[in-house]
Amino acid sequence: MRKTSLIIALAASASAIAAAPAAAKETLLFNRIGPTKSELYVANADGSGEHKLLSASDFDYAARYSQDGQWIVFTSERTGRGQSDIYRVKADGTALERLTDDPGVDDQASLSPDNRYVAFMSDRGASHRANIWVLDLKTRKLTNLTGAAAIQGDPAKPDGFYRPAWSPDGQWIAFTSDRNTEWKSHDKGAAWEHLQELAVYVVRPDGTGLKRLTAEGVTTGSPKWSADGKSIIAYQGETEVSWLSRVDQLSMKATTQIVSVDVATGKTTELTSGAGVKLYPQFLPGGRFAYSTKSAQISGIMYSDGAKPFPANLREPAWSADGSKVIYERIDNSPLPQNAPLYSWKPQVDYRYTDVFPMFAKDGTLALSNKDVDTSLVTMNADGTGKQLVFQSTTHCAAGKNASGHCGDMIGVALFPSWMPDSKRMVFSFGGYWRTRDQNVANVKMINRDGTGVEDLTSTTSNTGFASISPDGKQMVYRSWAKGDEGLRIMDLETRKVRVLTNGWDNVPGWSPAADLIVFTRKQQDGNFDIFTIRSDGTDEKRVTTFPASDAHAVWSWDGKKILWNSSEYGFKDEAALYDNSFQPYGQVWSMNPDGTDKEMLTDSRWEDSMPAFAPTNLPANIAKN
């Protein structure tokens, strides 16, 4: 009797478990800076006969020919935006085959001369650093070529390995690395984005014979071999180029030259002259060479004997060994729709795209800055529908005002919304920020959710912003940026009385929705940026990140249980100069407990992932649905 009852009870229990609804997935929103489409095209070397390599493609890039011209290897994100693997295909676009399958970044592939091995960059494994791996296509054995202790650099410093290229005899692999360099910011340490100092190295496929070929103090990238294996061609420039080249507004000021490096002696010879960014060089038959140029978003192909009629907007050209064909990518930077699906590195969480500075109200309304349009302040439902303009940004002086100086009426962008507890009002920052903050005014404003009742909370003659409301709605913390008046301030919203919380280069404060604890970013004396927490009375200040690379842009999860932020701890995933309009291409989204424990990287793409926000899970079903 007892046995029968137990069976019935177990069956009923199993039935109840089977009938129980599955737990709803969390949704993580974050912004991504990078192209939204990339297709591979093949053309004759003179630009004629252009056609797509693959009829069905969406996000393919970094293609290279095999030495015999029979195969092309490339990177694809066809399994999910942000997740990249290596593929190969015959030169006519047939026999497509996936070669790697790992949630990490696999990129920058190069086939050995006999087509048996493929070398590529990957950040797979526990280190999450960019290394050169070699895949045996016959046995499918994988080897971390640069993972040996004799090759690895100081793990507290930049330590990435990029852009492998096989020698014509298959006895050597050239690559670039920033190993054992320093974490240096551009503009002599004035900013938080890092420079990248690269050198060219060679190593045997078994990991022996490591040799550095190029000098310190410059950045040298994208090596390719000469047909006789005696020389390597690369681009080279001042290290500051690794910043200037990747920013649209600055790339026109940058210059690199194409150089030839003697493998035996390391002697470097410039092959080009004049201004402009020159990248992706390759030797061609007959003593010729080719490369691409870049100025802002315009790129083109150049030959040592003159230009050819190629489309202007192309990236990463690579030529067949006989010089007859060239493959390249055509990209699109059109913004993704709000809440567009992204690859989820945590299966229990849906990853979605968002515009910048997303902030949820308690009733589930999402406010953000629509940088993809004009950086105005907008609201919408949690699923991205029902978008409403709340405050219009301005980019031109008001009519009749002096356009050569301050306009009188403020101009600028609307950033960093923070909701009042009643979900009816919010504060936000308006004016000139980032690189223009020294020349422009900005302040904190309060506004009703329908766009009415705009009210200045701080002065319109200085530069303040990035305000965050206390859980009870009675105070706000914000940052002040003025000589002699720098740091975090707290305002009593009823009396408008202001008190000093911190002094110095502190920024982007966020008040925990669950406690009297404020998170913020601080620039250290050595130029590094780290995350700190502090109570509103100025006590219990604590540094919660300590890695020598920058940690910044911290925000709270909606329930206050986690801090989300951006970290450069794992370094670059590619040569920095090759990116387009990506300020921190090494930036990945992380989470940690408020005390700095349980740090976890949440994204792992080659792109800049930032501005995270978990959608609240306690919302009504019609709001929380994604």
Write structural notes for this entry.
InterPro entries: 6-blade_b-propeller_TolB-like (IPR011042), WD40 (IPR011659). With 626 residues, the protein is mostly beta strands. Helix content is 5%, strand content 40%. The chain is built from five helices and 48 strands. The strands form twelve sheets. Strands 26-27-1-48 form a four-stranded mixed β-sheet, with no helix packed on it. A four-stranded antiparallel β-sheet has the order 3-2-25-24, with no helix packed on it.
List its salient traits.
4-stranded antiparallel sheet, 5% helix, 4-stranded mixed sheet, 626 residues, single chain, 48 strands, Neuraminidase, disordered N terminus, mainly beta, disordered C terminus, elongated
Topology, element by element:
Layout: H1 2-19, E1 26-33, E2 37-44, E3 51-52, E4 60-65, E5 71-76, E6 85-90, E7 97-98, E8 106-111, E9 117-122, E10 131-136, E11 142-144, E12 161-166, E13 173-177, H2 186-189, E14 199-203, E15 211-212, E16 218-225, E17 231-238, H3 241-244, H4 248-251, E18 257-262, E19 268-270, E20 277-284, E21 288-295, E22 298-303, E23 306-307, E24 315-319, E25 325-332, E26 341-342, E27 349-353, E28 356-360, E29 366-369, E30 377-380, E31 388-391, E32 413-419, E33 425-431, E34 442-448, E35 455-456, E36 464-469, E37 475-480, E38 487-492, E39 498-500, E40 506-511, E41 518-523, E42 529-534, E43 542-543, E44 551-556, E45 563-567, E46 588-592, E47 600-601, E48 608-614, H5 621-624
